[in-house]
Amino acid sequence: MAQAKPNPFSYFSVQWIDKESTILFLTEQHEYEKALELINTISHHLDPRLVVATTKCLIGLHKIPQALEILLAAEKRDWVLPQILLLKGKALFEIKEYNTAKMAFERCLEINPSYEIKRWIQRCNVYLAADNEELSRRVVRYEPQLAQCQEPEPEPEPKPKPRHEWYQSSTHVTMVLYIKDIKESDLNVSFDNDSLDVCINSDGKTKLHIDLAKSIEPNQSSYSVTSKKIEIKMQKAVKGQWSIFEVHH
């Protein structure tokens, strides 16, 4: 009986699968530097999954221009995948290109409707509305009865972060903002997997962005308003204790 010939590529195939699995695991664990080191040892530009992993790492490390360059190259290859459009939107949002980011999210929503993408579009709308109102305050109007043009009003100084605190249980983490007399209609709170945005319209446009220390479940999170405070309750993605509430980049 003839002995079966060994497959010369089987060893390398196993190595490739192990590397890819390790890269995806490191990316999900936010070990971006380690994942990129491993990605750089293989040819990843022809594999959409590794392109997604690479850009996730670059965005996580705030290397937005490099991430956008890879994403645009992927689009030129007609890789119009939901993950690529979502990452493109996130990268553009990071550099405050809210309108272009919104268009990327809307394209992603057409292909793969999801609650997460709708929340990203909502976040873009919050920031676009704030920017439009800020722009309208800066417009210098011509008044015929005046001999000279009016000087534009000076920009208001940024408001300090309101007094706040946080506490937790094994399943939830809660942030309390001590701001009085806020109407719920003047408040926008947007949850993401690893961040939180708060926009208050009634007090000169307070905008607060917090990068959370760990992940949450956005669709299981909520907020409430009283006469003295805003309470934001978020469900943890993984049960356990957090040593810190937010991270500073």
Automatic annotation (TrEMBL):
UniProt keyword annotation of Mitochondrion present: no
Extent of the TPR repeats: 82-115
Name of one Pfam family that matches: TPR_8
Entries under PROSITE patterns matching the protein: CS, TPR
UniProt key word Mitochondrion: no
GO MF annotations, alphabetized: protein-folding chaperone binding
InterPro entries cross-referenced by the UniProt entry: CS_dom, HSP20-like_chaperone, Sgt1-like, TPR-like_helical_dom_sf, TPR_rpt
Assigned keywords, A-Z: TPR repeat
Descriptive protein name: CS domain containing protein
Alphabetical list of Gene3D superfamilies matching this protein: 2.60.40.790, Tetratricopeptide repeat domain
Residue span, CS domain: 159-246
Superkingdom classification of source: Eukaryota
